[in-house]
Structures are given as structure tokens and as C-alpha cells.
Amino acid sequence: xxxxxxxxxxxxxxxxxxxxxxxxxxxxxxxxxxxxxxxxxxxxxxxxxxxxxxxxxxxxxxxxxxxxxxxxxxxxxxxxxxxxxxxxxxxxxxxxxxxxxxxxxxxxxxxxxxxxxxxxxxxxxxxxxxxxxxxxxxxxxxxxxxxxxxxxxxxxxxxxxxxxxxxxxxxxxxxxxxxxxxxxxxxxxxxxxxxxxxxxxxxxxxxxxxxxx
Length: 213
Prior knowledge:
5 strands; 213 residues
């Protein structure tokens, strides 16, 4: 049996953390390895505990979720961050996604859906609601690398299309009969050529510019 997905809970409300832990402790393949009550503590705990997935609130005192996300990315922490928020406004969720979040769910999410979201982002997928994806697209359009798509090789275009489909590196490697290391190289080249920061922006670029098969 595969090792359980290690999850860190970051939220300033203890009752929320307790509720999330209660949801997750009944899952055989998910293990809550720690908690934090603000962004700064969340960053420190993520560095200490090396979780696979961080469930991160957006609005917290001191360092908020967006700043914590940026810090984790600067530290090259490999944890996938799933935003757990009570806010539905795009102005709240979009900055977190731009900072590197793999997706988001609402705090009243069904327990099974929450577990499914954790498994999904852990597998390398991106969770975006259509309205938020649209907002991201409009904000990224001016700096999205438009016109640079012609510099991609045919193989890089294939990889980009699969990223847009939400495939993980492992799934892309399997689909294209490549090694995961080769896929990682292609992904890095795509981000560099299109001047994009992460897979989320690459997926949005692909949708915007018709690179999805």
C-alpha cells in the first residue's frame, strides 16, 4: 500500500482546523501531520514537516495565505497548496492562485469532496472553478506569453496540452512514453519559453491560445 498523503492544516480558527482534521482522520490514505494558526507558522511547519499537501486559509492575521504561498515558492518547498476558504469573491481567490496555489475548495465542502481534492492536487492536478479561471485568463492576457507559442517544439506542445488537461508529470510520461525526468525538462522549457511562473499559468495559457487537444 502506498504511503499516506501527508497534510498540513493552516488556519487561524481552531474550530476549522479541528473540523478539517475530523474529516480527514477517517481517510486511510491521508494523514494530518500538523497544524498552524497563521501563514508564518504554516511556512515554518511546512519546512519542518515536509507535507505533500497544505490546506491553507487565505485571510489570517500577520502573514496571510497569499504571502505564505509566495514564501513557500521562494523556498522551493514542493508541497502542493490547496486553498480552503469561506470567501467566494474572485479578488480573494485569484491572488492565491496566481501565487502558486494548486486550487481551492470552500470551508463547507463535503468531506468526500475535500478528500478527493487533496488526492487530486497531490497527483499534480489543478482545481479551478470556471469563473475563477476566466478571471485569471483576463488578468494574465497582457503578460501571458502571447506570440511566443511558436517557439515551442511539437513535443512541448503535446506536453502543454496534457498539462491543460490536468495531467500530472507521471501521467504525461505514461501517455507520451517518456521518463518523468524528460517530462520535467519539457515543462521547465515550456515555462521558460512562455515566460510563465507555474503549471497553473501554463494550463491557462493553453486554454486561452487553443493548445488543448
